[in-house]
Amino acid sequence: MSHRFPPIPPTDLSPDQRVATTKLLQMFGDNPVFKYKDVDGSLMGPYSILLYTPSLIEPWIDLASAVTKQAMLEPRGKELAVLAVTAVYSAPYILYAHRLIGASVGLSENEITNASKGRLSESLTESEIVTYTIAYELAEGRGPLSEGSWDRAVMVLGREKTASIAHLVAGYVYTCILLNVGAVGAPE
For the whole model, what pTM was predicted? Predict the structure, then answer.
């Protein structure tokens, strides 16, 4: 997956890495929608890179879990926001995983393809359009959300949901940067 941060086989993990890997495996369970470990059990994607900074593994897992499990975010909207981030940051592993997750929560192939290319689909609801739009703007803009987008987000989604989307975007920007420093591609 990454020649910059080669996967570490389970037999070579340090005690800290083993504890964190166990926590990660508990987070995903036995049957995730996407592939996050290879045939020998080595972690893939951002998880492999995290093993090179053992002191950050558990805090990252805690943050990732909290950000992705926010109750007020509907599954389709959440995936559209993640796809908006990938449209800006071009992280193939995230796109691979969230194409599969997006399909599992009811996004069509057309909706997924458009979202991953920075485009909206006509089939989206108003809430989904606003969610995608602010996620894309936040990922691309690297500055304050425009007043027009803010006003529309608060009107359609409310302040709390808008803040939740910002947390989700920030979490995935972080993950995309990790993947991009490692030049991590999608699994074959």
Answer: 0.93
Write the burial class of residue 48 (CB in 10 Å: 0-12 exposed, 13-18 middle, 19+ buried): buried
Q: What is the mean pLDDT of the chain?
A: 92
Structure tokens at 19: 């504890």
Q: What is the pLDDT of residue 143?
A: 84
Asked if residue 31 has pLDDT above 70, the reply is no
Phi, psi of 37 (to 5 degrees): -145, 150
d(CA 78, CA 85): 11
Query: Which tokens hold the place of 148?
Result: 């027009």
Contact 89/176 with Cβ under 8 angstroms? yes
Asked whether the beta carbons of 94 and 86 are under 8 A apart, the reply is yes
- What pLDDT is recorded for position 79? 97
Give the 3-state DSSP-derived string for the chain, with helices as H, strands as E and coil as C.
CCCCCCCCCHHHCCHHHHHHHHHHHHHHCCCCCCCCECCCCCECCHHHHHCCCHHHHHHHHHHHHHHHCCCCCCHHHHHHHHHHHHHHHCCHHHHHHHHHHHHHCCCCHHHHHHHHCCCCCCCCCHHHHHHHHHHHHHHHHCCCCCHHHHHHHHHHCCHHHHHHHHHHHHHHHHHHHHHHHCCCCCCC
